[in-house]
Amino acid sequence: MQTHAIRLEAAGDPSVMQLVEIDLPDPAPGEVQLRHTAIGVNFIDTYHRSGLYPVKFPSGLGQEAAGVVEKLGEGVTDFKVGDRVAYPNGPLGSYARQRNMPAARLVPIPDGISDEVAAGSLMRGMTAQYLLKQTFEVKPGMTVLIHAAAGGVGQIACQWAQALGATVIGTAGSEAKCRLARPFCDHVIDYTNEHFAERVHLLTGNQGVPVVYDGVGAATFEGSLASLAPRGLLVSFGNASGPVPPFSPNLLASKGSLYLTRPTLGNYASTRAELLAMAADYFAIVASGRVRVTVNQRYPLADAAQAHRDLEARKTTGSTVLIP
Ligand SMILES: NC(=O)c1ccc[n+]([C@@H]2O[C@H](COP(=O)([O-])OP(=O)(O)OC[C@H]3O[C@@H](n4cnc5c(N)ncnc54)[C@H](OP(=O)(O)O)[C@@H]3O)[C@@H](O)[C@H]2O)c1
Q1: Do 256 and 156 fall into the same domain?
Q2: For residue 3, what pLDDT is reported?
């Protein structure tokens, strides 16, 4: 059958994303054919598109979507035609109307969770899950620092950290974004006009925080280290402002015997059991109402380039989806 998908012939600015007609074969053994209903737009998609994370061309783009199972490949028993499913982390090619997916990479969408919420937040929600519960276990009474609190991962992580009993210090890049982040942070810092590490020390009685969750990267790296208590952990999980430049491990010594980790969702959801357990944990906290997901931007699939421009220009808040 024929369908439409975004294809990249080379890395570059958003204009390299072209919506083209492609041939979609029947699903191979172990695969299902999906009709997408909503497609997640994540910051990592911009890294694949720009060349920061190299991909092989020609390539599809996007790692996350929700949809309906339309055909089953041989040997697929976990799903049936008509099931609502989602996937959080590839393989590349979610920017498409229909696609074939390995069934082992899919999770069922529970009743009560919309396709838009699943598509716009499963990757971000599962990321918050492992950051707060596995990379560093957030416990009641702790104070944690979470950057880009008005963003996709940020909104979810701040609410979830509060639900775990932590005091949350969030940062955001404008007065309007600070207002948006305020309901799910105990303190919000506009890091475009304030030295956030100094504020963190003021707020913690000069102790610093035991953990910083930093998806901003280059721009916040030094301030994040300076915000930590001795032996604290910097969780550097993204590069929204560019990748952290190389540095000597002695820097960690001079800042207080600090720890640094650079985790990825792929390493935490590497088995089917992990994928299902993390997705179920995430959907459960959304269903409980303690984490509210806001899908604040919707674009037609053909306007994927505009979605990337807005994301990279810091114009978005919460989650973003493409409508196929
Ligand atoms: N490692 C993993 O497993 C994993 C998984 C998912 C996502 N991530 C990472 O988590 C981060 C957040 O992802 P997301 O998709 O939810 O994006 P997002 O937070 O919705 O958007 C990124 C935000 O970063 C902030 N930012 C600061 N400096 C920036 C700059 N120079 N250019 C652009 N943005 C800047 C902006 O918020 P302000 O304007 O408020 O500063 C922007 O809205 C990304 O770094 C992403 O790669 C990592």
Answers
A1: yes
A2: 98
**For the CA of 313, the nearest atom of ligand 1:** 33
| Residue-wise pLDDT tens digits, 254-281 | 999 999 999 999 999 999 999 999 999 9
Give pLDDT, residue 319: 97
Site of tokens 């294809």: 7
Share of the chain above pLDDT 90, in %: 100
Residue 315 lies in a domain: yes
The response to whether residue 42 sits with its C-beta less than 6 Å from ligand 1 reads yes
Q: What is the dihedral of CA 305, 306, 309, 314, to 10 degrees?
A: -140
Assigned domain for 236 exists: yes
Look at the chain and report how many structural domains it folds into: 2
Annotate 129-182 with DSSP letters as a single string. HHIIIIIS---TT-EEEESSTTSHHHHHHHHHHHHTT-EEEEEESSHHHHHHHG
Pocket test for ligand 1, best of 87, 153, 160, 317 (most atoms within 8 A of CB): 153
- Give the Å distance between the CA of 80 and the centre of ligand 1: 35
Instruction: Report the CATH number at residue 78.
Output: 3.90.180.10
Q: What is this structure's pTM?
A: 0.98
